[in-house]
Amino acid sequence: MIPTLAEIFEEFNDLDAEDQSLFLLELGDDLDEFPDSARTDENLVHGCQSQVWLTACISGSGPDSRMQLVADSDSAIVRGLIVILQAAYSGLTAREIRDFDIQSVFRALNLQQHISPQRRNGLRGMVERINSIAAAQVASCSSSVDSGPNVAERSRTSVAVTLPVSAAFDVAHIRGQFPVLNRPLAGGIAPVYLDSGASAQKPQAVIEKQREVEEQYFANAHRGTYQLGVRIDEELEGARSRIASFIDADSPDRIIFTPGTTAGLNYIATGWGRRHVGPGDRILTTIAEHHANFVPWQQLARERQAQLQLIPLTDDGRIDLAALDELLSAPVRLIAVSGMSNMLGTINPIAEIAQRARAAGACVVIDGAQSVPHLPVSVQQDDVDFLVFSGHKLYGPTGVGVLYGKAERLDEMDPIFFGGHMIDRVGVSDSTWAKAPAKFEAGTAPIVQAIGLGEAVRWTEEVGLAAIHAHEQSLVRQVFEGLQQIAGLKIFGPGPEHRGGIVSFCIDGIHPEDLAALLDERGVFTRHGHHCTMPLHAALQVTGTTRVSFAAYNTSTDVEQFLAALQRAVSILRR
Ligand code: PLP
Question: Is 48 annotated in the active site?
Answer without folding.
Answer: no
